[in-house]
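ok trying this again, last paste got cut off
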Amino acid sequence: MNDQRLKNAVSSTKESRRKWSGKGILFGLLLLAAVIYVAMHLGEGREFLQLVRHADPFWLIVGVTYQAATYLCAGAIWWIVVKHFNFDISLGELSALSLAKLSLEKIVPAGGFGGSLLLVRSVESQGAPESVAAATLLVDVLSSYSSKAIANCLAPLGAIRPITSKAGKARAT
């Protein structure tokens, strides 16, 4: 009886240590990448602050709102997927995860691999099986490519706009 308890305690400790060491390594790598990124783009930060100081507050609010809506929509897409598989992960958690995923992809340019890994591991850490995490990643990739395809199809329509001639007739250019 005591041998079994000891084995369970040792395996539980090893499992816990593996989880924490993986999170520690990930956090350390993210922190290192953030320091490198900031050091490389210090001048850009000053230029950005100069732009912000002279910007119209209305457009700053529009930009921040648009950006927040982007993360919320990505989280909502993932929320629909996990709900389909009867798992309960909040929309807020998934929206925050979308912010973390995008930040990781921008800071560590690895072709989106780091962000994808973060998404899968985070969904799994909430108790979802690998199949649900994989489905979430698949829907993420498909929705990303679909939105890019739609934008590329609609972009030429924005370039063709009516121009009113002096006679008042619209003509396409």
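PB: full thing came through this time. The CA atoms of residues 123 and 129 lie 8 Å apart.
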